[in-house]
Amino acid sequence: RILLAYFFESMKSHLKGLSRARLKEYKQVQVMPNFVWMLRCIYETQSEKVGKGVAKCMRANYIKLTYCNAYSADCSAISFVMHHFQKRLALDLDNNNINDYGIKQLQPCFSHLAVLSLYNNQITDIGAKYVARLIEECPSLIYVKLGANKITTEGGKSLANAIKKSKTMYEIGMWGNKIGDEGANAFAEALKNHPTLTNISLAFNSITTEGGKSLAEAMKHNNGINIFWLTKNELDDEAAESFAEMIKVNKRLGHLWLIQNQITVRGAKSLADALQDNTALKEICLNGNPISQEEAKVFENEKRLICF
């Protein structure tokens, strides 16, 4: 009882005055690095009663542990407390050192997760497979962010196959990995007729014409995606022409980002022409492609095509 009271008061003292925010159904708190130290101490007790009591006193269900210098070994301590949450939990671990082993240690709290953000955590295909299993098995999960990790084709395929089976995923962020065309092809299969996916980022993933064409074809059969980020890939005019054909069919997509690819004025013209058949699309961003200001003047009257 004394130990529980000590940790309870320590947690209250730490959380007091921290940055908080309300995000629709979530109460968000940004914790500090010594929060991880406290969780380690709680974990050392191996007392479920202490873990449950501390979880109850937190009164927030969106826990931001960004830049807390958390390592893979800390994930057992994080999970020890977080798995006691009775409500849907959002866990943001961006910019730490979690890696594959850490994701495995988080598994006990997976069943409560609605949001999992793991941007920049040295995660490889092994960790991606753990997250894929989470996507398949956790019906409450709606948002996963895995940008700036070390996920390649195999991890990309595992995640795409899991998303294909999911009936709840709302957003997936894969920016800054290396899934390549094979991974893009797998995501294309996942996109076809997906019932809930709304936002997707495959930016900076070494996707070339082949992968771009597969994604464009898949989007002809998708009525849910609103925002699609494909920035910093290797998409050329041939891929742009495939997206132009898709735009004529898909009247749900709102934002298509093709920034910093290899699309010239030829591909831009195909996209501009396709916009004449689509009033729903709000913008196609082509900033950073090899299109000169002089060439871009041709599209001045099409405000939704953004070249600069």
TrEMBL record:
Q: Which GO terms describe its molecular function?
A: GTPase activator activity; small GTPase binding
Name the Pfam families on file: LRR_6
Top-level taxonomic group: Eukaryota
Q: Name one GO cellular component term.
A: cytosol
GO terms in the biological process aspect are: nucleocytoplasmic transport
Alphabetically ordered keywords of this record: GTPase activation, Leucine-rich repeat, Repeat
InterPro entries xrefs:
Leu-rich_rpt (IPR001611), LRR_dom_sf (IPR032675), RanGap (IPR027038)
Q: What is this protein called?
A: Nucleotide-binding oligomerization domain-containing protein 1
Q: Please report the organism this UniProt entry assigns to the protein.
A: Micrurus spixii (Amazon coral snake)
